[in-house]
Design a protein that fits this description.
With 229 residues, the chain is an alpha/beta fold. Helices cover 39% and strands 17% of the residues. It has helices at residues 2-7, 26-34, 45-60, 86-92, 102-111, 141-149, 169-189, 207-213, 222-225; strands at 16-20, 39-42, 74-77, 95-99, 119-125, 154-161, 198-200, 217-220. An 8-stranded parallel beta sheet has the order 7-6-5-4-3-2-1-8. The two termini are 24 Å apart. The protein binds pyridoxal-5'-phosphate.
Length: 229
C-alpha cells in the first residue's frame, strides 16, 4: 500500500486497510489485532456475527493496555445483505459497504439499535456491468444516495466497487476510475451534509490500480490471512 501510494504520488495516510477475515477463524483475527489491525471485513452475516462476539469476549478479557484504537474494533459487512438478515447486521456491524437497494437501507436504519452509533454505509456500484454481481448501475447511484442521506440512523460514507479482474494494470485503473468518477459526481451534487470520504476499491490482486485511481480503503484478504483454498 505504501509503495502504491508513493508511486501514485499520494499520501499513504489517505488509504485505510480493511482486513477481510471471511472464512478465517477468530484466532486469525486476534493475531491481526495484536499486530495492530483494527478494521475487519466479513462477507457472510452469521459467520461475521459469531466472530464479532468472539472478539468482543476476547477483548474484554484481555490484560494490559488497550491497543491504539482503545480496544475498539471496527466491523464492516462487505457481502450481500438479504432482507431477513438486516436486523442482525444492524445490531452487530459498524459499517455496511454493500447497500444497493432502498429497502435494505430503510430496514437497516429502522433496525439500528438506539444505543449504538449510526451505521456507516457505502453504496455498492457495479462499474463493469458484471451480470451476476450486486451493485447499482453508475447512473442509479445519485438517486439512492439522496434517499440514504435522509435516513436517520445511517451515515452515507461513500461507495464500494468490486470490478472484474482486468487484463493489465492500465485496464484495472480504468475500471476503478469509473467508480471514482461516480464518487466525484455524487460529492459534486452535494447530497450529504459533508462530502463522502470513503471510496472502497481494491483487493489483493488489484490494490495498486485502485490506489492509483483514488481508493481511500482497500479490502485485503488473502495477502494478509493466506489463500482461502
Ligand atoms: C473476499 C473479498 C475481498 C478480499 O479479497 P482478496 O482477494 O482475498 O484480497 C474484498 N472485498 C470483497 C467484497 C470480498 O468479497
Amino acid at each position: 500500500m505504501n509503495a502504491a501510494c508513493l508511486s501514485a504520488g499520494r499520501d499513504p495516510a489517505g488509504v485505510r486497510l480493511l482486513a477481510v477475515s471471511k472464512t478465517f477463524g477468530a484466532a486469525a483475527v486476534t493475531e491481526a489485532v495484536l499486530a495492530g489491525q483494527t478494521a475487519f471485513g466479513e462477507n457472510y452475516i452469521a459467520e461475521g456475527v459469531d466472530k464479532i462476539e468472539a472478539l468482543r469476549l476476547w477483548e474484554s478479557g484481555r490484560a494490559g493496555p488497550p491497543d491504539a484504537n482503545g480496544g475498539k474494533l471496527e466491523w464492516h459487512c462487505i457481502g450481500p445483505v438479504q432482507s431477513n438478515k438486516t436486523r442482525l447486521v444492524a445490531a452487530h456491524f459498524d459499517w455496511v459497504q454493500s447497500v444497493d437497494r432502498l429497502k435494505t437501507a430503510q430496514r437497516l436504519s429502522e433496525q439500528r439499535p438506539d444505543g449504538l452509533a449510526p451505521l456507516q454505509v457505502c453504496l455498492q456500484v457495479n462499474v463493469d456491468g458484471g451480470a451476476n454481481k450486486s451493485g447499482l448501475a453508475p447512473g442509479e447511484v445519485l438517486a439512492l444516495a439522496r434517499e440514504v442521506a435522509n435516513l436517520p440512523r445511517l451515515v452515507l460514507r461513500g461507495l464500494m466497487a468490486i470490478p472484474e479482474p482486468a487484463a493489465d494494470f492500465e485496464a484495472a485503473c480504468e475500471l476503478h476510475k469509473r467508480a471514482k468518477a461516480v464518487f466525484d459526481e455524487v460529492n459534486a451534487a452535494g447530497v450529504v451534509p459533508l462530502p463522502m470520504d470513503t471510496l472502497s476499491l481494491g483487493m489483493t490482486a488489484d490494490l495498486e490500480a485502485a490506489i492509483r485511481a483514488g481508493s481511500t480503503m482497500v479490502r485485503v484478504g488473502s495477502a494478509i490471512f493466506g489463500s482461502r483454498g
